[in-house]
Amino acid sequence: MAKTNKLTLFGLIGITMAFFGTVRSVPTLAITGWTQIFYMLIAAVVFALPIALMSAELSTGFSEEGGPQVWVKNALGDKWGFVTSWLLWVQMFFGMVMVSSTVGVLLGYVINKPELSSNNYFIFAVILISYWGVTLLNLKFDMVKIAGNWGAVIGVYIPFVLLVGLGLIHMIKNGIQPNSYLGHFKPSDLVPNFKDLGSITYLSGIIFIFAGVEISSVHANNIKNPKRNYPIAVISSVILLVIFNIIAGLTVSNAVPKGKLELANITQPYMIFCQDLGIPTIFVNIISLMILIGVLVQLSAWVLGPSKSMIKVADEGNLPKFFQKRTKKDVPITFVMIQAIVISLVSFLYVVVPDINSAFLIITITTTILYCIVYALIAISAIRLRYNMPNIKRPFRLGSKGNGLMWFVSLFSMAGIVLTIIVSLIPPSILKPSQYTGYVAFQVIATVVMIGIALIINKCKKPEWKKEEDHEVEYLKQAN
To answer: Where exactly are the transmembrane stretches of this chain (predicted)?
Structure first.
């Protein structure tokens, strides 16, 4: 039997950081000015770390494929296991609209038409074209294999390093700009202004930076000495991410004049840095193209990734046989087409809400809320499995003895999740008062509908939905 190569501590730190290293979230950080330091620390300590540590124990104890769905299913039963897998699928309807919206903004700069970045009809059209484009390509080719790791290097890592580097040079050269989001520093700027509740909603968008934090736990079984090295890797990764994001966020806050920052436009700070430092404008076009490539690669990964997980759920009998259809290339065609249609409908929000900043933030927050429901189920499952299945071997375990530390981390995580949901329901300050009711209604209805559909499907589940075993597999079973 071949020996499995174990991940080193530094290898896991690199992989964990790779999940969250993106320039897309920097404008959401930057718009909060000095308060972003407080928000990032809250997001890391109250949200990311507890979920990552609980997920590590669950991942090492229940290592079969499926992740959160398996954990919740073992703890709370089939119904909530299905709800978990369903929510992890449907959150991409909103998340991919948010990601796709940056394609139009970037394309405007690539073709030297920056005015298109604020044209909501153009953004809407590009969302449709880009998402349907990568969907159809993935039906024919394995775009993730074709793009490979170079897509992440070109579209994520290089742009992020350049953003931090150029931002620091710009700040050293110009100092703190009085007309920027940083302005004249006061110690009170480091904490939220609770008189302006609308500004606190940005915390939800910042927490979204760490959404998906449970993914890195799949490597917990493949690291040397997980009990010691996994928490070191997670804590180190989160600290480094906080530092890099804060540096990027503060430099962008300092570069963009107050009231002018565009949340969906990551090219904006590059343009300001290049103009100030005398770098040719073509550099901005190249950077925009690089980020655009990264976004399209990410979209390609999301076209098939969640749908392949969902078809396994369908095969188990949780969804009608219609959902079990595959193409000759084993593409789960029903899921792929449903998600493309729903994403097209959600993207219509960019027409209904003409202000691109508002639409971008609304969709980001919806995605965060759906993730929070999943994380609440994970937190409940983590503590319940300590009592239901105490003898399961857990290579990584919170606390050497007893359940006290797990109770603390689980409850701490639940407090952070509840706080995030409450904050998410406060209308953002960039909305007009006339839009407040619509905003709250959208968030509540979207969340209730997505959970409700899963519960209704589960209630209507029929035995005949389960996929029949292949005759050859059945024959082999009988032969054995």
So the answer is: 35-53, 86-109, 121-139, 151-172, 200-220, 232-257, 277-304, 331-353, 359-383, 404-426, 438-457
